[in-house]
Amino acid sequence: MTGMIRNFYAGGNTAHGFTSLMDSSLQGLDRLFILQGAPGTGKSELIRTIGEHMVSTGHDIWFIHSASDNASLDAMIVPRLKVGMIVGTSPYVIESIRLPEAELTYIDLGEGCDANQLSIQQIEIDNLNEQISQAYQHAYAGYAQALRIHDEWETLYIANMDFQAADELTKEYIDTLYGERTLDKESRVDHRFLGAATPKGAVDCVPNLTEGLKRYLIKGRPGSGKSTMLKKIATAAIERGFDVEIYHCGFDPNSLDMIIVRDLEFAIFDSTAPHEYFPDRVTDELVDMYTRCIRPGTDEEHAEAITLIKERYAAQMKQSNQYLAQVKSLQDELEEIYIQSMDFSIVDRLKDGIQQEISNIGVIG
């Protein structure tokens, strides 16, 4: 029997810089393999290969994707075995990970590098790293400016918001989702991102994450209360003892995009751009916050101002996304330098050793 893969992000290129929620996904692990080594040493491919092996042997896994490279992974978790693997290099600060119960095993893929060959190209390596750092800084500054523009957009709708109606709507859905049901235990709370700003633009994992669940698709405008509603629904889950997956906005991590409570088989999420979806499953249900909570005629009355804000916002986001694409191009150059110096047979041996250790955990478990 083949296992299931769940895909999401634990780090994002946001308006507040790089934001990591990785610690949350590592909670409860007994064993963590931390892969170290320069770009191009095979960390992501090793994670993917071992993850696919675990799936083929019937284990459900989490693939945690990289926001900086659409084809790369930052981590892999096997929840039932309480074991995981993570890329232990920047931008994640491994030293800050607090897992007092877990056994940490560091694996240095840099063992396969020819140090002499790399030393010849050290100036080029340093130059590429500096350019990558500068491109990230430009991207983050641009996203911060885009957030300020987005705040203008929100302010317009907040001024026309019926907060009592929003509170009533939220209470209706809390009653619908939970009723009188509670669990006599402490909730596990997982903080994640459902998507990210990437070198290829905004991407998300909504279809995979919501597979098999009753879905509530929230429609509305910036400032119409979508995130506040989700925060209250998450709080209700925690108060009632249900495990909850809290998905933060990949643009502004202070806002929420989705709540999933798998014990009750539901997902409720902000279904507006850049993760816009429409009902395509029999059980999908729309939640229209614009109709319920915003003064009628607001769109029409402020049409000109809204159009100008949208244009400024789109232009700023496009420019910032281009900097991420530049980062990816520079990273590809950097990786190629390291790839040419690598003996990947050493990486293969390390991979076989890790895979055997994880498989043994499965046998013991």
From TrEMBL:
InterPro entries per the UniProt record, alphabetical: P-loop_NTPase
Organism lineage string: Bacteria, Bacillati, Bacillota, Bacilli, Bacillales
Protein name, per record: ATPase
